[in-house]
Amino acid sequence: MEKFTIDTGAEQVLQNWQGPVEHVWQRYQEQEPQCGFGSLGLCCRHCGQGPCRINPFGKPDKGICGADGNIMVARNLLRQVTAGAAAHVDHAYETLEVLEKALSEEGPYKITDAEKLKGLAHKLGIAVEGKDIKDIGKELVAKAREDFQRFGSGELNWLVAHAPKERVAKWRELGVIPRNADREIREALHQTTMGMDASWPNLLLATVKLGLVDGYAGLKLGTDLQDILFGTPQPVFSEANLGVLTEENVNIVMHGHIPLLSEKIVEWARKLTPEAQKAGAKSIQVSGICCTANEILMRHGIPLATNFLAQELAIATGLTDAMIVDVQCIMPSLASLARCYHTVLITTNPIVKMDGATHLEWSYQQADEMARKAVELAIAAYSKRDPAKINATREKTTLMVGFSVETIISILSKIDAQEPLKPLVQEISNGDIQGVVATVGCNNVKITHDYLHVNLVKELISKDVLVVTTGCSANALAKAGLLNSEATEKWAGPGLKKILSLLGQVAGLDKPLPPVWHMGSCVDNSRIGDVLTALAEYLGVTVQQLPVAASAPEHQHEKALAIGTWAVAMGCLVHLGVMPPILGGQEVTAFLTSGAEEVLGGKFFVESDPVKAATVIYEHIQAKRKGLGL
Ligand code: BF8
Ligand code: SF4
């Protein structure tokens, strides 16, 4: 790799990296060359006779128990997708518990979007007319609980209510509709233990089932309940990159995923601003990393500090007074790094602790108290900053975010109030918009930080492809200046520019909408699923027939594999920029990259060159347009 990052803010901080602790790129170099068996998916530690490794070019060609490459790879993949789904489902479950409490007791959380709650209840078959909102909410919570507690047969309520009808029928035919999220996660772990499933097609079907657990009991459920509690995102403007950390403010960086905590920190940072001023600061600047950044960005305009791969660099600016983390994507390295600075690292979840960090546990009743304490710790740390260690950057960009489905519909309905999807469909039909691509997912140290996200998207928008984005992809594109009106002027193709200018006008801006629409965090990939479902149903076609695709250019997390599996099951072409550990199973690889299309409508392809990846995606879009007679 020639360069670590294309992010100019990250690069500046990295240039003045002050040891003695290593950063993620240095640790990566120490790992090289990475294990070939692991890279191919050909190692197994599922029982005490192992670890077993398979030689792709000869002997041994089986593990001690007789498992061959396809079985090993399929078992490993199912475990990865299960772990990813477990992360999202646990996230959704925590939110569900808070919603349940918020409906029945006085406490720190309240319902913000009653309309969303009613709309969802209606979709789930709950009568809403003349009922108290809290009663509707309780019935909705009961429906959500069923998706974790249903024993015996039955199907996920959230899936049946929200997935395209044609997909539900297909998944039923394949026998992959989950019964309850927890049961499927348990069963997948059982299925992959020693001496269990030795049929790779059966293991892949289970993988699809876990992808659906992720899509509906993780992503969709999580997004829906978060919107009810904290509000459905609306257009908001803000800034991105490490330049949002400035010397004059107390800087609190939120990192993680579930907005339960970050919402409270935002609230308490406002309340305690006078305390920060007494300590000599101008104000308190909350900013975010990873998906929690997306959550507070799109609901409150809180600026984005950076994304996954540059998380250490936020501390290395010497300006982060407190970094408050909850769950997922938090590098264990942060603890030793924070010790080299004045930064207080605060862990808040019982399953994410770090030696050397301050643990302030979040709980429903203590949420306010805990958030107040965390902000106070940040203010106290501010006065301990070491000027010699300040390594700041001024790099930052402007952005517009908040493209929830509701926002998109509300903008489009200014053109056609009766049929808001019609103008979008017309623009796709006449070719001003060739198609829609979602770029999602992480950074991965194997790819120059942000490089593939940014260059793939620039290619696509120049070809009149509208891009929607979530997660660390959204963060990468934000930092590269792709989420503002100027990006439309600079990089969008002529058709896309025309329609974005019109939409900008009807939205009341005197500028075009950005060419990349920020739809939220990784759980908010459900919003992209909702758009696809709505478009397919409006046109009376399948998702597979739409001129759309998805891409996780720099994925690293097991969650991304779970999301990708769901997208393939929806019928999407899914691009990955990094090869997952599957090549050791030749038949498994052939299925995932080709055969899946016949069975599921979607498939994966892997390409690490942005221009080549954009070409494959564009050709796919053209083929789908042709299929629709466009
Ligand atoms: O859930 S994109 S690196 S932060 S896993 Fe993690 Fe990947 Fe970022 Fe968000 Ni999603
Ligand atoms: Fe080896 Fe089979 Fe045990 Fe895996 S399950 S470690 S392949 S013997």
From TrEMBL:
Keyword Nucleotide-binding in record: no
Keywords noted in UniProt: 4Fe-4S, Iron, Iron-sulfur, Metal-binding, Nickel, Oxidoreductase
InterPro entries documented for this protein: CO_DH_a-bundle (IPR016101), CODH (IPR010047), HCP/CODH (IPR004137), Prismane-like_a/b-sand (IPR016099), Prismane-like_sf (IPR011254)
Record: residues binding [4Fe-4S] cluster 2: C44, C47, C52, C65
Membrane-spanning segments: none
Top-level taxon of the source organism: Bacteria
A GO molecular function held by the record: 4 iron, 4 sulfur cluster binding
Cofactors demanded by this protein: [4Fe-4S] cluster
EC annotation from Swiss-Prot or TrEMBL: 1.2.7.4
Binding site for [4Fe-4S] cluster 1: C35, C43
NCBIfam families in UniProt: CO_DH_cata
Name the UniProt record assigns to this protein: Carbon monoxide dehydrogenase
Species of the source: Carboxydocella sporoproducens DSM 16521
